[in-house]
Amino acid sequence: MPSALTFDRHAKCSTTKARASTLHLPHGSVPLPIFMPVATQASLKGLTYDQLRETGCMLCLNNTYHLGLKPGQAVLDAVGGAHKLQGWDRNLLTDSGGFQMVSLLQLATVTEEGVRFLSPHDGSPMLLTPEHSISLQNSIGSDIIMQLDDVIATTSPDHARIKEAMDRSVRWLDRCIEEHKYPERQNLFCIIQGGLDLELRKQCCEEMVARDTPGIAIGGLSGGEAKEEFCKVVDTCTDILPEHKPRYVMGVGYPEDIVVAVALGADMFDCVWPTRTARFGDAIVSSGTLKLSHKSFANDFGPVEEGCTCICCRPTDQGGLGLTRAYMYHITAKETVGAHLLTIHNVHYMLTMMGKIRQAILDDQYPAFLRKFFSDIYGGDKSKYPEWAVGALRGVGVDLLADS
């Protein structure tokens, strides 16, 4: 099918399956691997778009289901799409609404026609079909649009339902492709389903790859499954997926999950966690997370993270705010600006981490990056390294427990 992207491959790790590439989209080029902040309702909670630009973000997410409810398709058509509505001149990716089958399960009924929801706002009915999802995304004008898929929680014991959802997702992709009006300016990504059944995942990969969409997503994960199972699914899929297309693992946002999934061959990630955890007073740092609402920070006059170049941590003589952990402790539980400032820091941290990952791949030093990453989080104590990460990385040639 026509494509509105080009995908330049620059380097591949000589040990793992990690890749460094550039994704050229209608609203600018995106360095891969990338983490995409989530602006569900055309707004990133806690940040203005100028502040998001300052982090270097080139691609963030909106949600089709929510924008379809409010402001609605008529408003999106009248204003000329979501870029204009929200004042964002860089790239957008829209989820199709399929995830809401899980998150709003009590409000949804799935049939071959589509998904019938009761609005969480006013209880009014809404039918989301593959055709309606694509029509909404055409109106939104996002640079990457996702097929509507049939999403089942990975923890479901109903194997027949998981297979049905996989088969239906393939059929729905065909309907999405047929409905898509602007393939020359919007890129439709397929979504691999199949639960934790690796044979179903392989089968789905083959079906989806045959449709030749511009990019490919691995969906249905981050639903409470064991991390070992998550890694097996990603590893299995990337072994099959073509090298010349971007690979997006949906809903993944913890730093440990990302660095391992990159080693397994994935390129793109998204999650609300970095922004949500900021609203609880948690800062993401190289040693893990800091709960800055804890009284132990009341007299800590260092930056949130030493060496961080976000505007919060950067000293005043370098154009930053020079804020301390003590100040963040003082405002985090009391003032909304605390969540705002921590959101800036957390998004900056995630994008900076992705830049370091990319550079390590370009330098063919990704195994060394992984060893330092896990050493920093666990204070050099290898006995604390998570078994799932050790096992997954050992499978692609990196032994975290070996002497350096």
What does this molecule look like?
With 404 residues, the protein is α/β, with parallel strands linked by helices. It has helices at 49-54, 64-69, 73-79, 82-86, 100-103, 130-140, 159-179, 198-210, 227-240, 255-263, 273-279, 325-332, 336-362, 366-377, 387-394, and strands at residues 6-12, 19-25, 28-32, 34-36, 59-63, 91-95, 108-110, 115-118, 125-128, 144-146, 187-192, 215-218, 247-249, 268-270, 282-285, 288-291. It has two domains: 6-272, Queuine tRNA-ribosyltransferase-like (TIM Barrel, Alpha-Beta Barrel), CATH 3.20.20.105; 278-394, no CATH class. The chain is globular, with a radius of gyration of 21 Å. Strands 4-14-13-12-11-10-6-5 form an eight-stranded parallel beta sheet. The chain has a three-stranded antiparallel beta sheet with strand order 1-2-3. The protein has a three-stranded antiparallel beta sheet with strand order 7-8-9. InterPro entries: TGT, TGT-like_sf, tRNA_ribo_trans-like. Heterodimer of a catalytic subunit and an accessory subunit. Keywords: Cytoplasm, Glycosyltransferase, Metal-binding, Transferase, tRNA processing, Zinc.
